[in-house]
Amino acid sequence: MKRITLGLIALGFSTILAQANSFTITDYVKVEHSKAKYENIIRRTPYEECWDERVPVRRNHHRRNNNNGLGTLIGGVAGGILGHQVGGGRGKTVATIGGAIIGSLVGNNLSNRNYNDNGYEYVTYETRRRCKTHYNESSERKFVGYKNVGHYQGRKIVKFSQRRLNYIPINITISY
């Protein structure tokens, strides 16, 4: 049933199309006036401005267990000698040992100063090249074509072209 209905509809359209006739003709509209058209074109030309700049750079010197114990040893010896100078008898021994311990701690601390967990930090200066881009702008009027204007059966016809036209070609399709 559906096939028959679709077939009848298709047959009806083909009959209508077979009966419809049309043709196209070309006519010409007299140009009443042409006007040259220009556009402002802006050109941006880049250029770079560069300079050298001294900048501070923080650096971490990473130590890799380079505490060789020299500070601790020197501090211990110095503390022991100073402790030995104090007291007498058994007190001299205690003062020597105490001086050596305190001297070792001070020596170790002094040998590790300026270090944090990662090493010690210091500042140097480097010369770095800095650049910034600027633009020079220039404006120019550029010819883009002609606006040709005419009228056809009360309608305004406009055609843009690269040259002045005397006539504007138009296509007219007639269907019946």
Describe the 3D structure.
With 176 residues, this protein is of the alpha+beta class. It contains three helices and five strands. The chain has helices at residues 2-19, 70-85, 90-111, and strands spanning 22-30, 33-61, 120-152, 155-161, 167-175. The strands form two sheets. It has a three-stranded antiparallel sheet, with no helix packed on it. α2 (70-85) runs antiparallel to α3 (90-111). It is rod-shaped and about 135 Å long. The two termini are 34 Å apart. The mean pLDDT is 81.
Per DSSP, the total helix count is 3
The biggest sheet, with number of strands, parallel, antiparallel or mixed sense and barrel status, is: 3 strands, antiparallel
Strand order of the largest sheet: 2-3-4
Number of DSSP strand runs:
5
Which structural class do the helices and strands define? alpha+beta
Based on CA inertia axes, which overall geometry fits?
rod-shaped
Helix content: 25-40%
Report, as a whole number of angstroms, the end-to-end distance: 34 Å
Percentage of β-strand residues: over 45%
Comma- or semicolon-separated keywords:
single chain, 176 residues, alpha+beta, two-stranded antiparallel ribbon, 32% helix, rod-shaped
Topology:
Elements: H1 2-19, E1 22-30, E2 33-61, H2 70-85, H3 90-111, E3 120-152, E4 155-161, E5 167-175
Antiparallel strand pairs: 1-5, 2-3, 3-4
Helix pairs in contact: 2-3
Structure summary:
This protein is of the alpha+beta class and 176 residues long. 32% of the residues lie in helices and 49% in strands.
